[in-house]
Amino acid sequence: MTLSYLLKRVFHALIVLVMVGIITFFVVRLAPGGPSLLADPKLSAVERQAIEERLGLSDPLPIQFAKWAGQTARGNLGNSFLYGAPTVDIIMTRLPNTLILAGTSLLLTLVVALPLGLASGMSPGSAFDRITSTVSLVFVAVPVFWFGLLLIILFAVTWRLLPAGGMNTAGQEGNLGDLLRHLILPAVVLSAASIAEILRYTRSSTRTVSTQDYVRTARAKGVGQWALRYRHILRNAAIPILTAVGLQLPRLIGGAAITETIFGWPGMGRLSVEAALGRDYPLIMGITLFVALAVVTFNLLIDLLYPWLDPRVRAEG
């Protein structure tokens, strides 16, 4: 890996973060309406104006953007309108919960999707291939909220095997077993569509690689099935799979709003819904930037893996 390749990827990541910040700021501020605390009909015009001046909303939009950009560059995302506390502090209280849910969902996605996709891609047209392809297509199409409610009805209401929501049972805070029981349903719901998509990418990439001459040569030399699958096929099929995994990260971190709301999981997805409903500008911006930073960082790491997986990328860099 050359230094120019690394610097180029880092520069692209910084450009993405800047563009996300600019677009989000103007989209949020130009949307009709204002913060929910200004919607109180009991407020007089003088009180409303005083609140707007205190929050910096009475300044022209370019000046608001300049102030926000300067504060953000110093690591200050402002105070939340709804909670009256620093935006960074509020996000950091919810971030670990989202990371637990997203990390579990990503692990579940990889553990399930990669072996199934690899096996399906190496036996195209078989009964196993047809079954996995059909099931994955169903899970891509199923709405998240419907699937979540279905699991709650089955596992929490009908069979009473798992809790319907929350992160802990009252009085059980810090109990790892209780946390895992609450984690199962939201993790399954959040990872279902990702498993289906990664499975289909893995199947397609595996089928393409399996037809290459070096795979046929390895088979002719009597290479074992495990080595053939994981050393020769999966590694050479990994680049499109890694790209697909990178595309799933926004769904797992920022796109968990529906899942966290259904299951009452106190993470950033649920917090983003609260911020949007309350028109909490600093909190919306802070969450967006945190999610964008996580996505960009994860995809940067994936980009840095490309040269290790494929020498051709290393030569181009």
From TrEMBL:
<dbReference type="GO" id="GO:0055085">
    <property type="term" value="P:transmembrane transport"/>
</dbReference>
<comment type="similarity">
    <text>Belongs to the binding-protein-dependent transport system permease family.</text>
</comment>
<feature type="domain" description="ABC transmembrane type-1">
    <location>
        <begin position="95"/>
        <end position="302"/>
    </location>
</feature>
<feature type="transmembrane region" description="Helical">
    <location>
        <begin position="283"/>
        <end position="306"/>
    </location>
</feature>
<feature type="transmembrane region" description="Helical">
    <location>
        <begin position="237"/>
        <end position="263"/>
    </location>
</feature>
<dbReference type="Pfam" id="PF19300">
    <property type="entry name" value="BPD_transp_1_N"/>
</dbReference>
<feature type="transmembrane region" description="Helical">
    <location>
        <begin position="131"/>
        <end position="159"/>
    </location>
</feature>
<feature type="transmembrane region" description="Helical">
    <location>
        <begin position="99"/>
        <end position="119"/>
    </location>
</feature>
<feature type="transmembrane region" description="Helical">
    <location>
        <begin position="179"/>
        <end position="199"/>
    </location>
</feature>
<feature type="transmembrane region" description="Helical">
    <location>
        <begin position="12"/>
        <end position="31"/>
    </location>
</feature>
<dbReference type="InterPro" id="IPR035906">
    <property type="entry name" value="MetI-like_sf"/>
</dbReference>
<dbReference type="Pfam" id="PF00528">
    <property type="entry name" value="BPD_transp_1"/>
</dbReference>
<protein>
    <submittedName>
        <fullName>Dipeptide transport system permease protein DppB</fullName>
    </submittedName>
</protein>
<dbReference type="GO" id="GO:0005886">
    <property type="term" value="C:plasma membrane"/>
</dbReference>
<keyword id="KW-1003">Cell membrane</keyword>
<keyword id="KW-0812">Transmembrane</keyword>
<keyword id="KW-0813">Transport</keyword>
<keyword id="KW-0472">Membrane</keyword>
<dbReference type="InterPro" id="IPR000515">
    <property type="entry name" value="MetI-like"/>
</dbReference>
<dbReference type="InterPro" id="IPR045621">
    <property type="entry name" value="BPD_transp_1_N"/>
</dbReference>
<keyword id="KW-1133">Transmembrane helix</keyword>
